[in-house]
Amino acid sequence: MKVSQEVFGQVDGKPVHQFTIENEHGMVLSCLDYGCIITKLIVPDRKGIFENVVLGFDTLEEYQKYSPYFGAVVGRVAGRIANGAFELDGENYQLPKNEKNNHLHGGPHGFSHVLWDVNIIEEQESVSLEFTYRSPDGEAGYPGTVDVKVTYIFNEKNELHIHYDATTDQTTLVNLTNHSYFNLSGNLKRDVLNHTLFLDSDQFIELNDELLPTGQRLNVEGTPFDFRASRKIADGPKSSHPQNQLVGKGYDHPFLLNKQQSEEIKLTDEASGRALIVETSEPSVVLYTCNQLEEGFDIRGVPSRPYLGVCLETQSPPDSIHHSHFQQCILEKGQDYHTHTLFKFMVKDE
After folding, report:
1. Fold of 2-347
2. What is the residue extent of each domain of the chain?
3. Widest CA span in the chain
4. How many C-beta atoms surround the C-beta of residue 125 within 10 A?
5. Annotated binding residues for beta-D-galactose, as ranges?
6. Among 121, 120, 124, which Cα is nearest to 24's?
7. What would the pLDDT profile of 69-117 be if each residue is shown by its tens digit?
8. Which of 113, 179, 253, 323 is catalytic?
9. Residues within the annotated binding site?
10. For residues 229 and 273, is the Cβ–Cβ distance under 8 A?
11. Which among 161, 116, 112, 109 is positioned nearest to 139, based on CA atoms?
């Protein structure tokens, strides 16, 4: 396997590096030490043509100006926190509000917007990038000093493993995910509406007008949210279901997974033959179909528009701190936070 690095830009006078790993099959992963951003994932189609299957930019300035978390690790807490506030161990905490009245993805200076330290580990069948960051007590309003490690393991099986680890010196909240936008057509030749998705999930979480969980779990049976037999992404934007309409004609919903680490998610583009299998230790995945991607900028020469990508954000349910029946993201002193998500790329025959 080949590993290289180059300077990608600067943040506060410090260099930002891009790391590129290529396996013997020609698959390529590129990522930054800024926000752990995955900038490129280059994989073959059924004709052996290698193309990029994630949304991203070629300059740091574009990420800072336009990016809706393209490829980044978000945290301390992924998703929205209602009113940017929560109570923990009898103490009230106020977080910055960066989406209307709510706190989103760790705030304006969350993990997606900081420089991480990197350690490269080369082995015969894989290369690991260990990203580490110490989040000080009070950062973005959260309690506790948190030591975080995110490890990208890229191997000869065309797999990307992401391990998330954290410890804290006092009780706090931690819920991490990667926010890559996938488009298996390759180099954004088409939108994702004709992508087919399988999700092993019987229930999704209802959202309110602020896209926050109401706390209600809804059954997928008989709705456009039933992906158990696979269905096209386009079914959501075409649907008159109130939940599809609410989020801008599509999906931006947490789905509760029936099982873990057993091919519970599969995204396929029949035209190219590319398929992506996702396995996770997490209890849920937020499916976002890029319904509200703003226009007015280019993504590597392609004008931005809705439905250019699909996010599969494996995590604990959003805003769980306000819903005691959800799996919680409370991390206590002495506890170890660890989750794992696998992205495996395959090619389907015609």
Report:
1. Beta-galactosidase; Chain A, domain 5 (2.70.98)
2. 2-347
3. 59
4. 10
5. 179-181, 252
6. 124
7. 999 999 999 999 999 999 999 999 999 999 999 999 999 999 999 999 9
8. 179
9. 179-181, 252
10. no
11. 109
Instruction: State how far the Cα of 251 lies from the Cα of 223, in Å rounded to an integer.
Output: 12
What is the identity of the amino acid at 307?
Y
Cα separation, 24 vs 239, whole angstroms:
43
Distance (Å, rounded) from C-alpha 277 to C-alpha 91? 41
How does pLDDT run across 6-59, given as a tens digit for each residue?
999 999 999 999 999 999 999 999 999 999 999 999 999 999 999 999 999 999
User: Which residues sit opposite 189 in a β-bridge?
Assistant: none
> Residue 216 CB: number of other CB atoms within 10 A?
12
- Residue 195 a catalytic site member: no
User: Is 179 a residue of the active site?
Assistant: yes
Q: Is the distance from CB of 217 to CB of 205 less than 8 angstroms?
A: yes
Q: Are 38 and 54 in contact (CB under 8 A)?
A: yes
Apex CA 95: angle with CA 94 and CA 101, to 5°?
A: 100
State the amino acid at position 253 in one-letter form: H
Which single residue is written with the structure tokens 């456009």?
224
Is-contact 70 64, C-beta < 8 A? no
Among 279, 313, 323, 340, the active-site one is 313
- Rounded Cα distance between 321 and 142, Å, is 13
End-to-end Cα, the chain, rounded Å: 30
Give me the residues paired with residue 94 across strands: 85
**Full-prediction pTM beyond 0.85?**
yes
Distance CA 196, CA 231 (A): 5
DSSP string computed for 260-273 = SSSS-EEEEETTTT
Rounded CA gap, 154 and 314, in Å? 18
- Rounded CA-CA distance 174/43 in Å is 32
Q: Which of 152, 153, 158, 127 is nearest to 346 (CA)?
A: 158
**Distance, CA of 116 to CA of 93 (rounded, Å):** 26
